[in-house]
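Collaboration report, partner site 2.

Our partner group contributed sequences for two proteins of shared interest, and the home lab folded both. The records are reproduced in the order in which they were received, starting with the first partner submission.
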Amino acid sequence: MKRLPRFCLRAALLLPVLSSCTYAPPGTALFGPKAAAVSERQGIDRNLRKGAYPEALALIDGERRRGASKSLVAKDYLAAVAGSLKSAAAAQAEDDYRGAGLLYRAILDYYPANLPLDQELKTSRHSIELNLRFCSDRLMEQGLHAYRRGDLDGAIGAWSQLLDFDPGHEPAGNALATAVRQRDALRTLEKVSRP
């Protein structure tokens, strides 16, 4: 059997790759600010459609910082906040305090400062903070109940969930550290006591 020259073999290997490339006419923004803006816009729309509101809020905030149209940013922002609030309320109703807390935290992280936009929101910052605190309190209580029953893993789980959206919550941080130390000490004791 006759061997093909190396350049023929290379060309045969590259042919499928080259045939999948598409041609972009001159002037089409493949790179640069226009391409980034189009990509951001598509990302915002995609996240809003699939209900990924925290991700949409982050992209909208990026658009706002780059000076995007205020009316477009406002429309998307209000849609993302409305979706976040609806999803957070549904999660809260199902006792998913971590899920609700993450959504409330995202809203607060991107809450407009000194913008007329904050007057268009149907829910005040204070109300969102109260909902966030409610979620924190519920998870703190769940952790305490589990701890009192001797369920260290349950307590650790509840307090870890709380810290996912409220990392500065000192009582939960202290309680978590204590429960982890106790659990680790118990596991060590169990290993030592086994024959």
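Second partner submission, folded after the first:
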Amino acid sequence: MNGLLTQGVTYLADIPSPPRGVLHLGPLPLRAYAFCIIIGIVVGVLWGNRRFVARGGRPGRVTDIAVFAVPFGLIGGRLYHVITDNELYFRPGKNPWRAFAIWDGGLGIWGAIALGGFGAWLGCRYYKVPLSAFADSVAPGVIVAQAIGRLGNYFNQELFGAKTSLPWGLDVYLRTPGGVAGTLAQCPAVPEFPTDYIKATPTVLCGTYQPTFLYELLWNLLIAAVLVWADRKFRLGRGQVFWLYVAGYTLGRGWIEMLRIDTANHFLGLRINVFTSIIMFVVAVVVLFVRRHVGREDPALLQGRPPKVEPDRSGTGGEADSDLAARPRDDGEPSDEPRVKTTVSEQSTPETGAAGEIPAGSTADQRPDAE
């Protein structure tokens, strides 16, 4: 009786894996991995925008730059995954077209950061804001987006660690096409299945494994909190928050990656992602040390390109236009400062430099006498 009770308590403590990674709404497949990625991007952009405005930037500017950064980031993340795990797509018996099936999982964070950073640079150039300020603003949101993305791995029942007897282990079940019946013999050494497979009925427990997706999710949320705390306390700027994110993330990713048992290529005896984490951690620490005394950017620099102003179509004349039009600066760059409408008596002339004085020959001869 006690043994049965103990088994029941242990089972309740285990994390049950979901029955499927794809939910079909009629003919439309709703893929959990893609859904989690989208939610993460939305959260990251919204939070990044709030932080950017708090640092002196324009509302909506992070969304504008994300239009450049997000597509590049998704492409870069997929490229990194396909290159570093090419045996999944380009070996005998594999379908190379699956390299485009991003909904099945497989985004490498380093490729996403590299090409996404290039896209962000393009956006920052276009909108004339410092890339470092943009990176510092979005860094906490980026790592929270990564945490949300890890839930997609949970629904796909993938990227877990070795078997474990810990009470918080992940129960991994056999998945089959359409959920048809199966046997324990059908569970591979690493029981990861195509994302459109469904938990077999009756259920077959392949084993209980380390939930590395959960470890990384919690670690990322912890680092996000550290970034916000450090930024507020030390007023970090000029890329310091971003590089602190890189250091914190790689510190956790290194040991979590070593727990995983999924297929991975190795370099110098280490999984490629472990090796990359070590390199990026060292780079981040060096950058933070070199820039330890650098202050935050002048908030005025974050204003950048002013938003476009629609022309007045009310037909009321030029007064409304003059109040809304942007006045060019002396250096030729546009400004969002409203143009001030002045009268003749308030203007100064190049000839006199005195307000209210009109040069000889002017037609404005009705000027009142000075009081």
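Feedback sent to the partner group on the second submission included the following. The longest strand covers residues 205-209. Residues 1-11, 317-371 have pLDDT under 50 and may be disordered.
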